[in-house]
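> example.struct
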């Protein structure tokens, strides 16, 4: 079993890491209650080490009412009892590190749960109280304060619900997401101090990094003006005040040798790059590549734009095909529209899974060959498709807030299959898991794929092991036919055929790996990728 590259104590490990996203609730169930937990993750650490990943990113594992999948945090210094204990999290961090795997935790600084002690105290204290200054409480408009304070839209795509909720005492409070997620007032020094303390709390427990949720939303125009009349600068997206916050965070991370990855959705490349200046965040998620359709021209443009965005600030790019919010790659690439957009999600969209699987395998080699770090969402290495969840089992608030139009995100959050012959495909539950598994889930089980030299799991293991062949240098595009992506890095080449017919491979000394077999004449079939030694 090979050790991940950062086992060599490289302080710049994060610049080229393969980081595995763990959605704890659906990874593995250690106590049999139907919900994944830290005990389940600890038991599967050898699997993750065998996969060869450098780090684990955990979506929120804190105490939460789970009104938004854990992104409604009630206590940042405690693990939700459904997942385990703080002591168990500390053991997990240490045990993973012994295997050469670092840990990244999730911080949700824009908002907290309505069950957080601060918000409960604010509600109890009443209008005008100091406790309410930690949030955005305002009187309403209209003759009797019956109208919301402004016209801001919900950040849940497709939702027309208001972002203000009125309390019985007449005050309204702001929540860009659900009413159970009140927004914090980042102009208040106590809010800044609390989050700096939280960062230190987790760095001191051995985490290597922090992923920052909704990183561009924290700061608000203090006047809370209507968006319709004050569109620029935006009253709550990408405000300049954010950069002072992240500079103070960076100083803390540097004390501990920690790293940050920000969730930053911005269309402006120059504004995006500001978050990656040397004294701010280390990396940010690349949503352009994630949402890009399976089209050679569009993918190349996304890659070029991404690398150009990062070059001026010397930050590495990140590449990701799927996450806990996004339709799984196999399903998306098997559809007529292979792009991803929250606004276009719908029930019953036809999918060719065989086609999607071929493309997802090729995309895996493409992403792992690019310069920078790669995020791998749990189950992608198994080639899992998006599951269709019966309406009466859906739990995602996006489904309910869209009045049932949006199928929500539960389809990519179904518990993983570990053993084909065990109940619930070896997830570990005595009873039905928190989300139902499709009938064909055992066919994707880890134990089956480990014995199959052609499985998605085998492909990912081989690709991650061979990834150092591409070195740490820049990407150079090679001449290629229309519909074909071809580039070199160091002494390795990556070729991806998105054209309609097979293509000849460029001159090379050896085939390192391919996402599918070459044809009888040694050409690369459509929807197939190959890694070559120059």
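> example.seq
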């Amino acid at each position: 079993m090979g050790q991940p590259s950062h086992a060599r104590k490289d302080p710049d490990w994060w610049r080229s890491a393969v980081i595995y996203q763990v959605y704890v609730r659906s990874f593995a169930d250690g106590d049999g209650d139907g919900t994944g937990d830290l005990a389940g993750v600890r038991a599967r650490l050898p699997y993750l080490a065998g996969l060869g990943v450098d780090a684990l990113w955990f979506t929120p594992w804190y105490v939460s009412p789970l009104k938004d999948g854990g992104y409604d945090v009630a206590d940042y210094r405690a693990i939700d009892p459904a997942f385990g204990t703080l002591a168990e999290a500390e053991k997990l961090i240490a045990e993973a590190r012994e295997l050469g795997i670092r840990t990244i935790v999730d911080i949700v600084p824009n908002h907290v749960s309505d069950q957080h002690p601060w918000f409960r105290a604010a509600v109890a204290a009443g209008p005008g109280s100091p406790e309410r200054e930690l949030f955005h409480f305002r009187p309403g408009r209209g003759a009797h304060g019956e109208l919301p304070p402004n016209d801001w839209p919900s950040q849940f795509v497709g939702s027309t619900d208001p972002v203000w909720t009125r309390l019985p005492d007449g005050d309204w409070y702001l929540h860009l997401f659900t009413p159970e997620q009140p927004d914090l007032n980042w102009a208040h020094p106590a809010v800044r101090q609390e989050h700096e303390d939280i960062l230190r709390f987790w760095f001191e427990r051995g985490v290597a990094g922090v992923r920052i949720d909704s990183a561009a939303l924290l700061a608000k125009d203090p006047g809370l003006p209507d968006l319709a009349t004050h569109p620029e600068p935006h009253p709550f997206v990408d405000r300049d005040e954010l950069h002072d916050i992240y500079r103070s965070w960076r100083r803390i991370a540097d004390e501990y040798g920690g790293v940050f990855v920000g969730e930053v959705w911005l269309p402006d490349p120059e504004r995006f790059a500001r978050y990656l200046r040397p004294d701010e965040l280390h990396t940010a998620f690349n949503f352009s590549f994630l949402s890009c359709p399976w089209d050679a021209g569009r993918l190349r443009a996304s890659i070029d734009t991404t690398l150009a965005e990062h070059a001026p600030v010397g930050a590495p790019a990140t590449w990701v095909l799927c996450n806990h919010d996004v339709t799984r790659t196999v399903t998306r690439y098997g559809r007529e529209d292979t792009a991803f957009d929250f606004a276009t999600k719908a029930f019953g969209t036809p999918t060719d899974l065989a086609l999607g699987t071929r493309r997802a395998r090729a995309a895996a080699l493409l992403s792992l060959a690019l310069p920078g770090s790669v995020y791998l969402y749990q189950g992608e290495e198994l080639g899992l498709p998006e599951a269709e969840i019966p309406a009466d089992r859906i739990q995602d608030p996006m489904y309910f807030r869209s009045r049932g139009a949006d199928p929500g995100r539960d389809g990519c959050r179904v518990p993983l299959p570990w053993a084909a012959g065990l109940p619930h495909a070896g997830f570990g539950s005595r009873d039905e898991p928190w989300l139902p598994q499709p009938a064909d889930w055992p066919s994707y089980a880890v134990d089956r794929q480990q014995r199959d030299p052609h499985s998605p799991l085998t492909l990912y293991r081989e690709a991650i092991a061979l990834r150092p062949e591409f070195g740490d240098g820049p990407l150079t595009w090679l001449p290629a036919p229309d519909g074909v992506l071809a580039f070199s890095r160091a002494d390795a080449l990556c070729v991806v055929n998105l054209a309609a017919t097979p293509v000849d491979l460029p001159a090379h000394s050896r085939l390192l790996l391919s996402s599918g077999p070459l044809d009888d004449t040694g050409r690369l079939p459509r929807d197939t990728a190959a890694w070559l030694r120059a």
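> remarks
Residues 1-8 have pLDDT under 50 and may be disordered.
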